[in-house]
Structures are given as C-alpha cells and as structure tokens.
Amino acid sequence: MIYHWCARQDWEGAHDPHTTPSLEAEGFIHFSFLDQVERTASQWNAGHHDLVLLAVNPEGLPLVVEDSYEVGEEYPHIYGPLPFRAVAGVVPFPPEADGTFRLPPGLPT
After folding, report:
1. What is the full DSSP assignment across the chain?
2. Does this model's pTM top 0.85?
3. pLDDT digits (tens, 9 = 90+) for 12-38
C-alpha cells in the first residue's frame, strides 16, 4: 500500500479517476509509504483539519519511487490520475492536539 491525504471535500467531490493540483503542476500525485505518513503529514500539513487518508494499492498504476526533490529520501509517485478501483480504504485523518499526525485506526495496510 501507498498513502495519500487530501481535504475531505476534495475527495468527496472527486471524479473517477481522481486528479490533484500536483498532477497538473508536476505531472504526478504525491504519496508516502506507511513509515513516512506521520512525519511527512506533520511536516507539510501540521494543524490541518478535515483531511482524509487514502490507502492505495499501486498494482497496475504508473508508480515511480524516486527522490524527485533531492531530499535524501525516496517517495512513491503516481504519474497519472488515481482510479477509484485502486483505493483500498479512506479514513478520517485528524491532527493531534499539537497539530502533528498519527496513523489513524482502521487504515488498511
């Protein structure tokens, strides 16, 4: 599984296949591996409320694992829209009281 978070309203209003601003601007959708989710979400989205976390089965998708920003760590990216059939689960992803994120219960792994 790979993981992507977004605003609940963006996911609820999504069309199949799902696109994101990063797909339009950079050519890919950002994802994280399970062990990167808490740190990356806390770094880039600290304190953001009303997010959902998508668990995605990348089989058959145009997945590339790369360090595209030369930060010393590779992340999964999907070079194309995300078909709904690949989404194994969607769970609420609220921040902790201090604004950081923890993996939510019920997340498919």
Report:
1. -EEEEEEHHHHHT--SSB--HHHHHHSSEE-B-HHHHHHHHHHHHTT--SEEEEEE--TTS-EEEE-TT-SS--EEEESS-B-GGGEEEEEE-PPPTTS---PPTT---
2. yes
3. 999 999 999 999 999 999 999 999 999
N residues, the chain: 109
**Order of strands, edge to edge, in the sheet holding 75-78?**
29-30, 75-78, 63-66
CATH topology of domain 2-32+40-92: ADP-ribosylation fold (3.20.170)
**Tokens in use for 26?**
């950079």
Q: Where are the domains of the chain?
A: 2-32+40-92
